[in-house]
Amino acid sequence: MSLLERLNTDMKNAMKNKDKLKLSVIRMVKASLQNEQIKVGHELTDDDSLTVLNRELKQRRDSLHEFEQADREDLASKIRDEIAVLEIYMPEQLSEEDLNQIVVDTIAEVGASSKADMGKVMGALMPKVKGKADGGLVNRLVQQHLS
Prior knowledge:
Layout: H1 3-17, H2 20-40, H3 46-69, H4 73-87, H5 96-110, H6 118-129, H7 135-146
Helix pairs in contact: 1-2, 2-3, 2-4, 3-4, 5-6, 5-7, 6-7
């Protein structure tokens, strides 16, 4: 079942169950997917859909950070709930141990030896872990191994 089909099914269920939060999040994601489809000019692949979903999740995490900094717990709570709904549609996240092993393997694969090779490593690594790991964590692990 594609992401869009799953969103449509869940949207119907949210309407039936009068789950306003889930319904609004699904509608926002569907709008983002449709906007992306118009932008690229063709049907979105699962990879494209995952990119859009990651973007939505990142925006909410950034907002959450800002709301927590501003001590706005009312807004932070709403964003946490939205993040929980979005995470339902994300693929299984890699554990830090698994991610660490992938980083080590990729560094060996591209022959990186210093922080100057960071771009090469990240370029080879990110497609492998797309949607399965947080980019900040990946970046931190690569930096640790290259220093």
